[in-house]
Amino acid sequence: MKLNSLVKTLILTALLVSSTAHAAKTFCSMTLNSNDEIATFAAALTKQGFKFVELVPDNKDPRWFQQACRSGIQCDVLLISGHFGGLFFGEGTSQTIDIAQMEKSSCDNSCPGILKNPKEVFLMGCNTLASQKRDHRTIDQYLNVLLNDGIPLDFAEQVVASRYAQQGFSLEKRFASIFPDTTKLYGFYSTGPLGKYAAPILNRYLKSVGNYNSHLDNLSSAPNAKLAAAFKGQSFRETTPWKAVTPEDRGLYCALRSDDKATQSKAVVQIAQENKVTTFFDSLASQLSYGDTIAGQIDSVSKDIIKKSLAKIKANNTELVTIQHDVMQVSASLGLVDPFSRDMQVRMLLDKAYGQTMNYAKVRQICGIIRDEPGFQNMSFLRLRELSARSPYFMLTLGCYSELNEDTRTFLFTKIASPDKEYERTIALQVMKPFWRLEDMDFLEMVLKTADPLLKARVFMSAREVLNQYKYSLLITPGLPSCILKAETSSQYQLGQEWSCLTQNKTVLSPDICDYFADRNPDPENADDMRWYCWSDNKQRLLNSRPECFLLAETFKIRGNQMKNIWNCSNRDIYGY
Question: Which of 352, 379, 406, 511 is the most exposed place for a label (fewest CB within 10 A)?
Answer without folding.
Answer: 406
